[in-house]
Amino acid sequence: MPVSLTERADRLNLRAGFVGRLPPVILVTDEQRMPDPLAAMAGLRAGDAVLLRHYRAPDRRDLAYALAAACRAARLRLIVGGDVALAQTVGAHGVHFPERLAARAGSARHARRGFLVTAAAHSWRALVAAHRHGADAVLLSPVFATASHPGATGIGACRFAALAHRSPVPVYALGGITATTAGRLAATGAVGIAAIGAFTA
Questions:
Q1: Rg (CA), the chain
Q2: Which of 50, 101, 131, 170 has the greatest number of C-beta atoms within 10 Å?
Q3: pLDDT tens per residue, range 85-117
Q4: DSSP string spanning 75-90?
Q5: What's the pLDDT score for residue 51?
Q6: What fold does the segment set 5-199 form as a domain?
Q7: pTM, whole model, 2 decimals?
């Protein structure tokens, strides 16, 4: 019987020693590829997380409230991208920063007790910076070829493993993640997976 994406994520989370502390799966919303994040959440389980990006959506605030309510009902964690105030307002569990804004992670940690603070990274330098600024975890991408980065081949499982094993902060794999490609991450040191396309089918 094929191993599902969530099962592979659970195994990564367990192997990394973060069960109960960091979600094994982070669903990442995207305006173009995931117009209905609420429907995409059906593939998640209690303890997983939803990362609201939709940075340019005119109804972003309303969507944040809707996702917050849905996450509470399903016992999921909501992480709001780039907006600490909005995250606090809707009662989110954390906040996420694009790589260029990772320096804001430190101040976000003090915004609310127990806030989960994540940051995006695309290089070793960015991993170190995210750690220095106080991020709890980093979404490293793109690991494999993905529609989010047309033409990019991704860093690959070997390079990802080299970075993740050395990283001073827990690392999620993002980019081209499917049940099949996630199977190549078993010994990489990833704490879990983050994905868009895997939840839009």
A1: 15
A2: 50
A3: 999 999 999 999 999 888 888 777 766 678 899
A4: T-EEEEES-HHHHHHH
A5: 98
A6: TIM Barrel (3.20.20)
A7: 0.94
